[in-house]
# Entry
Amino acid sequence: MLNVPSQSFPGPRSQQRVASGGRSKVPLKQGRSLMDWIRLTKSGKDLTGLKGRLIEVTEEELKKHNKKDDCWICIRGFVYNVSPYMEYHPGGEEELMRAAGSDGTDLFDQVHRWVNYESMLKECLVGRMAIKPALPKDYREEKKVLNGMLPKSQVTDTLAREGPSSPSYDWFQTDSLVTIVVYTKQKDINLGSITVDHQGDSFRVETIIKDYSYLIHIGLSHEIQEDFSVQVVENVGKIEIVLKKKESTTWKSLGCPLENHNSLLPKKDTDLYYRKCQLISKEDVTHDTKLFSVMLPPSTHLQVPVGQHVYLKLTIAGTEIVKPYTPVSDSLVPEFKEPVFPNSKYIYFLVKIYPAGLFTPELDLLQIGDYVSVSNPEGSFKISQFQEMEDLFLLAAGTGFTPMVKVLHYALTGIPSLRKVKLMFFNKTEDDIIWRSQLEKLALKDKRFDVEFVLSAPPSEWSGKQGYISPALLSEFLKKSLEKSKVLICICGPTPFTEQGMKFLHDLNFSKDEIHSFTA
# Structure
């Protein structure tokens, strides 16, 4: 029997990544929007050409279906007839044809941001590839009940070949507490490196070690209380998670291993994991942008590192859709400073509402007390890029300002070598400028910070800069405090803005190491 993937996002191993470069979209014909495609998939029309049958597909058979009107693509072992989807694909038909008649998994991971292939293409499912993946060598070993001894896993073999030093874990107990200790053997571990979730009897600890994910995933043998504590000893990379027993009884084992327990995998190959967060508040910031505040469950520890994003997930017309958003502070000015983790359970998002969009109007319809699913943090930005930095330049357009909020706060409070921070903020009109008064107040309060607003449609009385990103604007803006100052330039905005800005920066002889683009 074929195992049909469920209608959820993302399914096994189908995490969506924010890539290092933008993806070009093509104009779609009238009636070819995402909502139109969802309607078509629910119409009952046979989109596979197989009249509801599911088949096992050999490599030879897959290769035969490589034309626009007969295009099959394999993604993670499942084969889809994407011919009906051609005209609905935002990246254009040519992008899909690059994978025609072949395994398109790698291409999919490179260029897609939020498309849920399992849900979007469910009605296009032809079947499964005939070759079945082998079980890992230690599969039977991993099924044994945990007793405090470390079971063998793929960790050691993987790390010996290409990863960091092999992490491990142990546990011990008192009458009232159970302590799980993770030994990462890395010195750059902090509270933002670890995410902990307790749902039902499932206890999940994910630790990010360089570009790898080390997972502890256990069905606990006894009940615990909701709240727990997480501590990190940074100089040795040791993590301690202290659980409170519901009953003062001796545990004979920690529990049973669940999926991917005690595994270390490249981060890019792991699944996104979600927890439901409650909407606590939303308030207007501009005429079309709002500040949303959500509260993490009491049984979750999650701290989003500076410069990283999460995915928000909603069910729309029966299909789960996700979008990436970078959390911000609740304010820029000190009197409203964001609470210090780990005590804070709140995450803030600045979201522009697009009335004709699919996702943001649904997000805006949420009432206080409703829930939205929030993923683990993602992103390539590393705090180490700030090391010994002296001049920080931020280039933002519209809601591309969001990753700059925590970057700005961290730079002004946590970098002793910093001489100046400059923000050039591009918008269409004055009404579009997010947190203008707060930015101006921050510039008055901290002499290292300066902000310049650039409008593309300014009023007649506007005395500031106007136009679009250009070499002339940048060359004047990007003046170092000293000739040999160590510089970092961060840029974020719509894809054309970011791509053009990156080109101008390279033309101005800034190196790759001096530039970080946030793209989503």
Notes: The chain has twelve helices and 28 strands.
